[in-house]
Design brief:
This protein has 92 residues and is of the alpha+beta class. Helix content is 28%, strand content 18%. It has 2 helices and 3 strands; from the N terminus they run ααβββ.
Length: 92
């Protein structure tokens, strides 16, 4: 009987947990930000890229930087070269 109560409690708690849903509130669309390619990677560019893409967060990707490979639907990735010129902009 005690095991049943523990399982029931675990199910109740897990039902309250939030699960990220693709296309949810943190939707990112990198297409409008493509016009920023070739520009200097500055804080002003970052703010404009976030506004254009509607992303929640931004991650700079520097040359030879080790990055995690998890997909985050509301994150905008901006790849720059060694001179901080924007090479690529994509979501994830």
């Amino acid at each position: 009987m005690r095991h049943v109560a523990i399982v029931a409690a675990a199910l109740a708690v897990s039902a309250c947990a939030t699960t990220p849903v693709a296309g949810g509130g943190g939707r990112c669309d990198a297409k409008p930000a493509q016009r920023l390619l070739g520009r200097a990677g500055t804080s002003e560019l970052a703010a404009e890229a976030l506004k254009l893409s509607r992303a929640d967060t931004l991650r700079w990707l520097l040359p030879d930087q080790i990055v995690t490979m998890e997909y985050v639907a509301g994150r905008l990735n901006i790849e720059v070269d060694s001179r901080r010129v924007v090479l690529a902009i994509r979501c994830g």
